[in-house]
Design a protein that fits this description.
alpha+beta; OB fold (Dihydrolipoamide Acetyltransferase, E2P); Rna Polymerase Beta Subunit, Chain: C,domain 2; Dna-directed Rna Polymerase Ii 140kd Polypeptide, Chain: B, domain 3; seven-stranded mixed beta sheet; globular
Length: 780
């Protein structure tokens, strides 16, 4: 895919660039993943859910049908600022157009139904829940699809292959090979049964038919897998296969053919109970060499005519047959096992998908209530509003934003802390790993992380390797796989390699077979390679090779690291462990009273500050008409005057002081994306986490032994590292068994000196200077 190489707006402060490599591709918007994912949920994800549950029928299926036709979000009741000050949730009301059909009379009733207030994402990629800003962290999970693993048999020493078919929702299928050449399958971790029994249940009744399916792959004379499995199989027909599957899944229930058929059909071919998701079908197609449409989200076999989609049967596109054939091929030495830690097998579930999953839970609970009410009310008098109870939906959403492990109180110590929190990738959370069970392999840096997940930035404690950060140029594609950009390498008439301006985004799977040149390879002005051998990597191998073997070239040396790591100057001279500490500790830098941008930067200080959402950015070209400490008025070229409000001395989630200061003056011409006001820890639009102080490395009479330091008194006098912290204290007067508590100035056994800062009501007055142990509120 080609991309236009337009440049971002120049920073306010001019910088001299000493970089040896030109910037080929500007950094993408650093919080785009959050914004795009939420937009997808509003535009598509919500509609998918309503389609899934429509129509809701009564228990008989003969009287009433309830359909969701469309939905819309209306204007919020309160603005973002009001929600922060009043400690309420910033949300938009969700309304749905609902149609109720009375099947007996043919009457149709349409109504707009209110489905609750839905928390709305701010422009900064955050949610305001009960007045506090929260971030929904993206989750890194194993992708739906089929995986093949190898196990060395302890008795024979043979390498035997196993398979696992994991849907997005529904029963897992686990395939195993025994040392007796028998292929078996477990459905949802229940007892094992021969694979051929499951194939019979799926419509392949006779032994000859089953053998015929695998005659081209089961060719090893020493290990005849299908015949060995058939010898163990007690069933002889489709009906026998169905009954055997039913016995394993419902032990104790009397098996009948109809019950067994209904169970198998609902377990694997009913979209409500079994869903591979588009990404699961995409992975199956790639792994098994299929070309099925992405709408085939259940299993495909001869037995069921793809019931959920009304498609004709596709015998040659049978998922289970292809999986069994692949396991036989692997056992015969053709191919390798999958690497489950490879990023081609792990995908990102961003905020939109996580909300969709939770909303689905609420809608399914609501569906049960609707059905129950349908059986109680008279069909002639029923209306959509009467049948729909929104409590389960509202409760599910509230539970997710308030209590989910992935909905987190936003870290706001400084703008970098906030930006990094929005770009975080967590392997923990519901449906993910637990830190107690996660081994070394899943935590380790993998070669497929190159350009996708930062190999440096991760916590140092028990979460090491389970929580990571998206690389600077990384982006998430519609299937949830992380892509990284590369420049295409082409050949000229004389078969010489040169680098083009075409930018191609590759997933880890697509990059596997490509040879990629490092970004620092020397080029002439026409993009041709100057050296006869260049540093390349292909898969897990890093070596030198002629440029003629290259397919792509990195766009930038910083594309392998995260924003935090890319802010460290001369990162290549830093030890990996200390770089990890530096990346993490930058986020702990407290905002100082007078921020100072670094003299030596890496060039992304401006973008890190802008994309954090904490600075005020011009939305359109215009001229500044008035500036004060609290607002900036810009007369835009379109003719409208627009007011930008500035935040003054606001407490952040971490108790630091958030204060915006205007950068422009009256009469200044501003361009779109230009920074109009600085924030905490920014200086002229650039990230400023520390101070430019002179540091000497020398002994000083033992005063700086080990980790002690000696400070110049000017650091204190000039307020170099002075910071403002805002603490909120709450005091409640309750009714107790001994009587009501009272807030008052008359506190027994306390001298007048201690009460000097309290007003007549016993509350400290504004502007009083207080110290430790001073009384703020008197209560008896």
């Amino acid at each position: 895919m080609s991309v236009t190489l337009d440049r971002a707006t120049a920073p306010v402060r001019p910088r001299r660039d000493f970089a040896s490599l030109p910037e080929v591709l500007p950094l993408p918007d650093l919080i785009q993943t959050q914004l795009d994912s939420f937009k997808w949920f509003c535009d598509e994800g919500l509609g998918e859910l309503f389609k899934e549950i429509s129509p809701i029928q009564d228990f008989t299926g003969k009287n009433l049908d309830l359909k969701f036709i469309s939905s819309e979000f209306r204007e919020p009741k309160y603005s973002e600022e009001e929600c922060r000050t009043k400690d309420i949730t910033y949300a938009k009301p969700l309304w749905a157009r609902v149609e109720l059909v009375n099947k007996e009379t043919g009457e149709v009733a349409e109504q707009d139904v209110f489905l609750g207030d839905f928390p709305w994402m701010t422009d900064k990629g955050t949610f305001v829940i009960n007045g506090a800003e929260r971030v929904v962290v993206s989750q890194l999970v194993r992708s739906p699809g089929v995986y093949f693993t190898a196990v060395d048999d302890p008795t024979t020493g043979r390498r035997l292959f196993y398979g696992k078919l994991i849907p997005n929702r529904g029963a897992w299928l686990e395939f195993e090979t025994s040392n007796k050449d028998v292929l078996s399958v477990k459905v949802d971790r229940k007892r094992k049964l021969p694979v051929t029994t499951l194939l019979r249940a799926f419509g392949y009744g006779s032994n000859e038919e089953i053998k015929d399916l695998f005659k081209n792959v089961d060719t090893d004379a020493e290990h005849v897998y299908i015949q060995s499995t058939l010898d163990r199989d007690t069933s002889a027909s489709t009906n026998d296969g169905l009954v055997e599957v039913y016995k394993r899944l419902r032990p104790g229930d009397p098996p009948t053919i109809d019950n067994a058929r209904n169970l198998v059909q609902s377990l694997f071919f009913n979209f409500r109970r079994y869903d591979l998701a588009k990404v699961g079908r995409y992975k199956l197609n790639r792994k098994l060499g299929l070309d099925l449409d992405m709408s085939h989200r259940t299993l495909t076999t001869k037995y069921v005519q793809c019931a959920s989609h009304g498609q004709p049967p596709l015998e040659n596109h049978d998922d289970i047959v292809r999986i069994v054939a692949r396991i036989v091929e692997l056992n015969n030495g053709k191919g390798n096992a999958d690497d489950i830690d490879h990023l081609g097998n792990r995908r990102v579930r961003a905020v939109g998908e996580l909300i969709q999953q939770q909303f689905r839970v609420g809608l399914l609970r609501m569906e049960r209530v609707v059905r129950e009410r349908m059986s109680i009310v008279e069909p002639e008098k029923a209306t959509p509003k009467e049948l729909i109870n929104i409590r389960p939906v509202v409760a599910a959403i509230k539970e997710f934003f308030g209590g989910s492990q992935l909905s987190q109180f936003m870290q706001q110590t400084n703008p970098l802390d906030e930006l990094t929190h929005k770009r975080r990738l967590s392997a923990l959370g519901p449906g993910g790993l637990s830190r107690e069970r996660a081994g070394f392999d899943v935590r380790d840096v993998h070669y497929s992380h190159y350009g996708r997940i930062c190999p440096i930035e991760t916590p140092e404690g028990p979460n090491i390797g389970l929580i990571g950060s998206l690389a600077t140029y990384g982006r998430v594609n519609p299937y949830g796989f992380i892509e990284s950009p590369y420049r295409r390498v082409a050949r000229d008439d004389k078969d010489r390699s040169y680098v083009t301006d075409e930018i191609v985004y590759l997933t880890a799977d697509e990059q596997e077979l490509a040879t990629v040149v490092q970004a620092n390879a020397r080029l002439d002005d026409k993009g041709r390679f100057l050296d006869e051998r260049v540093q390349v990597h292909r898969g897990a191998e890093y070596h030198e090779a002629p440029p003629s073997t290259a397919d792509f070239m990195d766009v930038s040396p910083k594309q392998i690291v995260s924003v935090s790591a890319a802010l460290i100057p001369f990162l290549e001279h830093d030890d990996a462990n200390r770089a990890l500490m530096g990346s993490n500790m930058q986020r702990q830098a407290v905002p100082v009273v007078r921020p100072e941008a670094p003299i030596i930067g890496t060039g992304i200080e401006y973008r890190a500050a802008r994309d954090s959402g904490q600075v005020v950015v011009a939305r359109a070209p215009g001229v500044v008409r008035s500036v004060s400490a609290t607002e900036i008025w810009v007369e835009e070229d379109a003719g409208d005057a627009f007011r930008y409000r500035l935040q003054k001395f606001v407490r952040t989630n971490q108790g630091t002081c958030f204060n915006q200061r205007p950068l422009v003056a009256v009469g200044d011409r501003v361009q779109p994306d230009q920074i109009l006001a600085d924030s905490y820890s920014t200086d002229e639009g650039e990230l400023a986490l520390g101070q430019n102080i002179l540091v000497a490395f020398m002994p000083w009479e033992g005063g700086n032994y080990e980790d002690a330091i000696i400070l110049s008194d000017r650091i204190v006098q000039d307020d170099k590292f002075t910071s403002i912290h805002i603490e909120k204290y709450e005091c409640e007067a309750r009714d107790t068994k001994l009587g009501p508590e009272e807030i008052t100035r008359d506190i027994p056994n306390v001298g007048e000196e201690a009460l000097a800062d309290l007003d007549e009501n016993g509350i400290v007055y504004i502007g009083a200077e207080v110290g430790p142990q001073d009384i703020l509120v008197g209560k008896i």
